[in-house]
Amino acid sequence: MDYLFNDKIKKSIKNDLDLEDRKNLNESLVAQEKNFKLKTDYLSNSNKDNHIQLYEQYIKDFNKISNKLDAADRSSVSSNHSEYRQLKIDETYNMNAAYLHELYFANISDINSEITMDSLSFMRLQRDFGSFDDWQRDFLSCCSTSRCGWAITYLNTYTQ
Question: Rounded to two decimals, what is the model's pTM?
Fold first, then answer.
């Protein structure tokens, strides 16, 4: 996600804001959405369109919240509840959702991202989980229990 202060983006956001929030628009951090060409046969066109619409909405919401954060009262913050705390939670949620969609789009379109039985990734997953099927069951369980529906596989270089 690219962040910038772009007059065209500010103008489009300004139309969605009420008068009070418009005053602070010049100070806001603005996310600029990226364009993705989803070259994959694994997703239907409606699924692709749905994810692109979700991504666009996360960017739009992030930009709105960013503007509201600049105007939020920082003198009455609380770790339990305050306008500023809620806006920061919403900002983080939308930023993460946009970033995860960008990773998803980049990976789903990568024709070299398939795991084959002779790849190092397959062999390590099989070694560490007993079998590739065991890893896949564990991964799908993690995805299903995640409140946001996302899960990421990565190698922790410290613990291997």
Answer: 0.68
Of 92, 43, 87, 38, whose CA–CA distance to 67 is shortest?
87
- Each residue's pLDDT tens digit, 24-62: 555 567 888 899 888 887 788 998 999 999 999 999 999
Alpha-carbon dihedral sign for residues 32, 37, 43, 49: positive
**Cβ(71)–Cβ(121) under 8 Å?**
no
Give strand ranges (E) for the chain: 2-3, 31-32
Q: In angstroms, rounded to a whole number, what is the distance separating the alpha carbons of residues 145 and 142?
A: 5
Q: What is the DSSP string of 40-84?
A: -SSS-HHHHHHHHHHHHHHHHHHHHHHHHHHHS-STT--SS--HH
Compute the radius of gyration of the chain from its Cα atoms: 20
What would the pLDDT profile of 94-122 be if each residue is shown by its tens digit? 998 999 899 888 888 887 777 889 988 89
Structure tokens at 84: 């500023």
CA distances for 42 relative to 39, 46, 67, 107, angstroms: 9, 12, 37, 12
Per DSSP, 26 falls in state G
